[in-house]
Amino acid sequence: MLCKLSEPAKLIHETLQTACGDCACSYQTACRLVKEFKEGKEPLSDCPHPGRPKSCVNKQTIASIKKDIDEDPHISVRKLSVTNCLSYGTVHTIITEYLHNMIKVFARWIPHLLTVDQKRERVRCATELLNMFEHHGPKRLCHIVTGDETWFSFFIIPPKRLNRMWVDGQGGRPVVLRPGFQSRKRIFTVFLNYSGPLVVDTLPQDTTITATYYVQNVLSQVKSAINEQRPKVSTSRTLFLHDNAGPNKSRATTQSLRELGMSCPTPPTAPTWHHVTSCCFRF
Questions:
Q1: What residue spans of the chain are helical by DSSP H?
Q2: What is the mean pLDDT of each successive set of 10 residues along the chain, which is 283 residues long?
Q3: In this structure, how many other beta carbons lie within 10 angstroms of the beta carbon of residue 221?
Q4: Structure confidence at residue 179 (pLDDT)
Q5: Is 65 inside a domain boundary?
Q6: How far apart are CA 263 and CA 249, in angstroms?
Q7: How many CB atoms lie within 10 A of CB 191?
Q8: Which of 9, 41, 157, 282 is the most exposed place for a label (fewest CB within 10 A)?
Q9: What domain range is 76 assigned to?
């Protein structure tokens, strides 16, 4: 309006300062706007600027990066930048700031990838066990016996300071054999119940666990330990939990458990109980 009244730019700038205070534009901006309005500019919005935008981060690029990550979680930032024609830094910014602070982690190794039917069978077995332990149910925690096999390596590494020796300054460093490279290992079969370790069986050297060894040496020890710990309770009340290793699911093992009256609700590809049996070595 002031431009149409042919007011000078200085007066217009003073009027804006009076009305807006510190929020008013500078004198140079007021002069530029007065010149543009006198040349016929009508809209107050800025004209479109040529060239690419200041930042490539928008809804389209974010959605494209998210789609590529969903299709291939192992994809690298460099490959994402090449695929989407974006810089490495832009892709990294999108992943860390616009995709809920995503980070790249190492996947955890598992022994089996379960099918839908196997997952349903696990749910069924878990539900059956939970029903047994309900209030006034037929089972108690003292009836559970669980076990697993694990390898233990053992060797003694002397302190590194014992390898220090005086040598001539002109010679090189001597070498010494590290004893850890000649380690030995043994396999232990550990069973435990609510009170702690029940049986710890050490497999003799140069032998392997077979169904015969498992029945004659391991299960017999478990039976004796249960009878010694709870002589008035029959082994038929015992819930026997172990994994699905070859000796554990053999016909001889199944027959022996049936003769002992122990129930063994083990689903297919049952997980090992190493996270449970490892606790017994902390006592």
A1: 9-20, 27-38, 59-71, 77-83, 88-93, 116-132, 211-213, 220-229, 251-260, 274-277
A2: 66 78 78 75 65 74 91 90 90 87 79 81 83 70 81 71 70 68 73 84 83 86 83 74 78 82 70 44 38
A3: 16
A4: 60
A5: yes
A6: 13
A7: 25
A8: 282
A9: 59-98
Place of tokens 């008013």: 24
Do 247 and 278 reside in the same domain of the chain?
yes
Task: For residue 165, tell me if it sits in a domain.
Answer: no
For the record, the structure tokens of 144 come out as 């559970």
- In the block, tokens 């022994």 appear at 111
Question: In this structure, are 219 and 147 located in the same domain?
Answer: yes
Same domain, 93 and 230: no
How buried is 260 (Cβ within 10 angstroms: 0-12 exposed, 13-18 middle, 19+ buried)? Answer: middle
Question: Residue 127 falls within a domain, yes or no?
Answer: yes
pLDDT attached to residue 37: 74
DSSP-assigned beta bridge partners for residue 193: 196
pLDDT at 82: 92
Shared domain check, 37 and 126: no
Q: In the chain, how many domains are there? A: 3
